[in-house]
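Reply to thread "Modeling small-molecule complexes from scratch"

Following up on the discussion above, here's a worked example others can learn from. I took a protein sequence and the SMILES for S-adenosylmethionine and predicted the complex. Inputs first:
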Amino acid sequence: MFAGIAGRYDLANRVLSGGVDRSWRRKVMAAAGSPGPGATVVDVACGTGDLALLFAKAGAQVVGVDFTYEMVAIAPSKDRERGGAVAWLQGDGLDLPIGGSVADAATIAFGLRNVADRRRCLREMARVVRPGGRVLVLEFSMPRKDAFGRIYRAYLEHVLPRIGGALSGDRAAYNYLDDTVQGWPGPEQLQEEMEADGLVDCGFERLWRGIACIHHGVVPPQTQMPDARG
Ligand SMILES: C[S@@+](CC[C@H](N)C(=O)[O-])C[C@H]1O[C@@H](n2cnc3c(N)ncnc32)[C@H](O)[C@@H]1O
């Protein structure tokens, strides 16, 4: 599905979010401790690279990993004014092609909802982060069922698939977005899962009345996180 929409993905993102996704990505960067020169960040499900490039512009060394070749193949063409270096890899977030405890932070933006096993992905992200480093998840969530929540649901179900479909040429991809967002666990459950997988100091920040959330957790100091691949 992502291979099919890769060429129009950025445009659809900007239009559907009104550009707000950019400010959310900057918040992820701040939640990661604003890594700069000397820091290493792994961005899982990096897609066309927007979050990875923010870290690189701040001078961090970045590894961007995505399953879909057509998505990650777009990233290098956007990789111009960077300060740090980016390695773009085609790879699986459930089996990261990266050694243990090498990064200061691992991030995933709008990707955890799409992987086949989110717990395993979280464990893989924790595995590649050094003790004391951070794991960050930016993901959509559902707002409360008040007036705003009802309007947002109507937008997700009726407006977003039409506009997303027109921009990307694949309406089914944006019906999928609606289905997966509405079926996504609440932030409290995701926090419990992060804690159950060994992360500490976990928490989340709701963005825009809860239509998205940034989750954060820390790899406990002096701990070797288990290899999710068993
Ligand atoms: C909605 S896009 C998000 C892209 C980017 N992070 C962003 O913020 O725009 C979801 C991405 O998850 C990737 N993906 C899905 N399953 C994956 C997996 N198992 N490993 C790595 N990437 C995966 C898809 O290829 C797609 O590029």
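What I'd highlight from this example: The longest helix spans residues 147-168. The pocket of S-adenosylmethionine is lined by residues 2, 45-47, 50-51, 65-68, 71, 92-94, 109-111, 114-115 (CB under 6 Å). Questions welcome below.
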